[in-house]
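Below is a filled-in request sheet from our internal design queue. Each sheet records the structural input a requester submitted and the sequence that came back. We keep these sheets so that new team members can see what a complete request looks like end to end.

REQUESTER: design group, bay 2
PRIORITY: normal
MODE: inverse folding
CHAIN LENGTH: 466
BACKBONE (tokenized):
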């Protein structure tokens, strides 16, 4: 069993430095089986810290795994979070979670976000008195009462997603200092000022999405890879070790037997290595960024602007980079794809997301009607560059921004001129942000690939709203 360091909370209780994240990407049906088996496996691997939330819709399964594990309850540190739709009824929210978990107590109960959401019309609570709903200062006062009214059932209370501005505002009226602030934290978002503020107030920091949700750009970051090579370990292990060395616990999610074990094997980084990783975002704005664009809708998160949330940096996502997929090593994304095609895709999607360059975009395709087949979503296929230009002129009407992200590129060893693609596209159109998932098939002209200047013969894309 690996030995996992612990940190002391301001309540006197200990929290294991690495926990298992239980957000399975989306709530709901089908994921209950995955959480049952992967969490049971995690406990067997030695995890003793579990992070869930009412919003993840799996408290029942999480509780069941803990109860059936045979591990004494005292040995497991369990965090869950109040659903922002229950901020008007903290007691009801807490009791509902405890009932679903089927446990006697939770170790840590967090306010999931500063902003509540009114369940009746999905409108966000405001950030000052007189706005919709109670303020977070008032909600925190209700959380504090739980420690008395539900003594023994909740051991510590804390917050999540509180940046310095909102944390300072909360501390002005708080009678109980939060035990924990759970925040997005990884090499591209070290939040140094916030971590220091929490330290000054005795608030422990837990990092969520510590691996940038897996397929993230820092997995191919030269600085981090160099440190991983020096320690003969993985990027994930370096990142988690770096967080722990900074006094931060982390809750990486993995449903994979090997990766969940890998995430428990920490290495001892030198102070210079810790600084080298901190220097990345200090010195390079391209590598200083939040990494969860999926949680933003119409420029807001849960109805609040990034400014209301106190974010001092948004999404400076680096240029498209092809990442190996962590999901399925057998069919790894990017594996075996010739460099000429990777470079081509990098250029192609950059041009694709640039307005007005319709002719340049069309030049990525063969100029031969007998071989060209271009079809995006429900459009009728076109077989000419002119047809592509006309489609693009039309498609860009009213669009002010468009961003493709390629999550996966797959190639067959037998058919090197055909690739399958998987990605998302987000665009701002007439004041609204819309997002699609897409899958694509791209076939190249063989000779052009050999020349190192690939031209597309077939490009067919299937779309579904994200
Ligand atoms: N408080 C909040 O508002 C908030 C927000 C987001 C998340 N969270 C919490 O934080 C937890 C973790 O965050 P997250 O799930 O968003 O992202 P994450 O833990 O940074 O990344 C999870 C992804 O990384 C992959 N992965 C895991 N270990 C890996 C390794 N060693 N090498 C390569 N890939 C690896 C996983 O795939 P496999 O499963 O296939 O290994 C999964 O796709 C959540 O589950 C949740 O409990 C809290």
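RETURNED SEQUENCE:
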């Amino acid at each position: 069993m690996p030995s996992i360091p612990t940190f002391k909370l301001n309540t006197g209780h200990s929290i294991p430095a690495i926990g298992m994240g239980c957000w399975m990407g989306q709530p709901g049906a089908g994921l209950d089986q995955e959480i049952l088996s992967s969490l049971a496996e995690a406990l067997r691997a030695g995890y003793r810290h579990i992070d869930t939330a009412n919003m993840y819709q799996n408290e029942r399964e999480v509780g069941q795994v803990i109860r059936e594990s045979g591990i004494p309850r005292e040995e497991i540190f369990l965090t869950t979070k109040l659903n922002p739709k229950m901020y008007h009824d903290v007691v009801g929210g807490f009791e509902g979670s405890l009932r679903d978990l089927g446990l006697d107590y939770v170790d840590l109960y967090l306010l999931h976000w500063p902003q509540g959401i009114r369940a009746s019309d999905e409108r966000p609570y405001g950030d000052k008195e007189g706005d919709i709903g109670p303020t977070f200062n008032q909600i925190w006062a209700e959380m504090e009462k739980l420690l008395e009214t539900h003594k023994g059932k909740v051991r510590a209370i804390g917050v999540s997603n509180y940046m310095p501005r909102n944390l300072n505002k909360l501390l002005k009226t708080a009678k109980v200092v939060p035990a924990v602030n759970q925040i997005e934290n990884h090499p591209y978002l070290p939040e140094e000022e916030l971590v220091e503020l929490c330290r000054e107030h005795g608030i422990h920091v837990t990092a969520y999405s510590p691996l940038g949700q897996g397929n993230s750009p820092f997995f191919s970051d030269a600085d981090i890879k160099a440190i991983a090579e020096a320690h003969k370990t993985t990027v994930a292990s370096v990142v988690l070790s770096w967080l722990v060395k900074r006094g931060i616990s982390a809750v990486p999610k993995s449903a994979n037997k090997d990766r969940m074990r890998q995430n428990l094997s920490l290495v001892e980084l030198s102070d210079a290595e810790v600084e080298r990783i901190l220097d990345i975002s200090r010195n390079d704005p391209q590598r200083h960024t939040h990494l969860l664009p999926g949680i933003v809708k119409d420029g807001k998160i849960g109805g609040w602007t990034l400014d209301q949330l106190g974010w001092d940096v948004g999404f400076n996502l680096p240029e498209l980079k092809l990442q190996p997929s962590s999901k399925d090593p057998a069919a790894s994304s990017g594996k075996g794809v010739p460099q000429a095609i990777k470079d081509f895709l990098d250029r192609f999607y950059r041009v694709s997301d640039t307005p007005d360059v319709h002719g340049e975009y069309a030049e990525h395709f063969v100029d031969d009607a007998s071989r060209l087949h271009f079809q995006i979503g429900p459009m009728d296929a076109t077989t000419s560059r002119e047809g592509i230009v006309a489609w693009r002129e039309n498609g860009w009407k009213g669009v002010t921004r468009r961003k493709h992200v390629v999550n996966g590129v797959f190639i067959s060893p037998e058919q090197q001129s055909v690739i399958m693609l998987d990605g998302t596209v987000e665009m701002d159109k007439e004041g609204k942000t819309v997002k699609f998932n897409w899958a694509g098939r791209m076939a190249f002209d063989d000779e052009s690939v050999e020349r190192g200047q690939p031209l597309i013969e077939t490009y067919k894309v299937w779309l579904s709203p994200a």
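SHEET NOTES:
- The chain has two domains: 6-305, 329-465.
- Residues 21-23, 51, 112, 160-161, 182, 208-214, 234, 236, 251-256, 259, 262-263, 326-327 surround NAP (CB under 6 Å).
FILED BY: M.R.
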